[in-house]
Specification:
The chain has helices at about 20-75, 75-100, 100-115, 115-135, 155-160, 165, and strands at about 5, 10. It is mostly helical and about 190 residues long. Strands 1-2 form a two-stranded antiparallel ribbon.
Length: about 190
Amino acid sequence: MAIDDSTGTDSKGTGGETPFSSARKAFADTASGFTDQASSRVRDYTAQGKDRAVEALDNVASLVTDAADQVSEKLGDQYGGYIRQAADAVAGLATTLRDKNTDELIGDARDVVRSSPAIAIAAAAAVGFLLARVVKSGFTPSTSANDAGSAPTPPAAKKAAGPKAAKKAPAPDPAFVDKPIADTPPLS
C-alpha cells in the first residue's frame, strides 16, 4: 500500500494517516499557534510603546512650549517663535502617532525596512547597543535587606569603594631608583 505524502492518504484513497503526516499536521498546528501568539504580543507591545511614546512626546512638546515662552520674554519673539515651531512639530508627531493604530505602525515599519534596509539594520544595531549598555550598567535591583530603603549605588561608585581602591601602587625597587641607565646592572 503506497502513501501519497502530499495528501497523507494511501493509494486506495481511504484516508489512513501515516505517522509522518500526523506529525507534520501537529507541527503545523503548533507553529501556527506560536505565530498567532507572537503576533498578538507584538501588537500588545506596540500599543504599549505607542502610548508611552505619545505621552513622552506630549511632555516634551509642553516643556519646549514653556521654554519658548521664556525665550520670548528674554530674547524676543523671533527666537521664541523658532522654539515654538519645534514644539509644534513635536506635538504634530505625537498627534500623528496617536491617530495611527498598531497595524498601521507595523506596516509603516515594514515599509521603512523594505525601502532602506541599511538604515533599518543600523537602527537595530543602535537599539541593541543601547539595550546592552543598559543591561551592563547594572539596572538590577539590590536584593539585600540593607539596601531596601536606599537608592541603588551607581556602578562607578561601587568600583571606587571596592577593595581594589584601597590598594596602593607597589613601591619602586630601590636598586633602580635614581640611577642612570648606564649604571644599572646588566640582565643576565
